[in-house]
Amino acid sequence: MKQFLLLLSVILISSCATQKAINPNDVEPSIDAWHEAAAQADFKKYFDLMTTDGVFIGTDATENWQIAEFKAFSKPYFDKGKAWSFIALERHVYSENGVVYFDELLDTQMGICRGSGVMKMEDGNWKIAHYVLSIAVPNENVSSLTQLKKEWDAEYMKKLRAQ
Hints:
Oligomer: single chain
Order of helices and strands: HHHEEHEEEEHH
Shape: globular
Structural class: alpha+beta
Low-confidence stretches: 3-18
């Protein structure tokens, strides 16, 4: 009986152990390849690096793209041979319990942007499950930007509140 209880204790302790942290070197190549696929207008590769239920949140308040919508929106840009080019300037990768999330500063056609995302393993590969892109605005420019978009924001907020 003692041996059985000891074995049971070992099994319980093992099953409660925290999962090993994921090495950023295991996921960063997928993020880099995803950005590179957009820069090369490689539609198939770009979307193969996203999960089948992926989400892309763009810089415009209306851009909350589920994967099928994002493909439809993006296809004309990729077909013209010019999607977008995001080059990571800085990136931080975190993991906990098998979930990977990251943030990055990017050199883009819009200047410095910030991206953040969640990755998950799908078909044996790390893929983008959720990505949020935002334009980085220096604090000293926030008042000017707020004024610039004030009317648009007011109209869009009315529309959202009416839903």
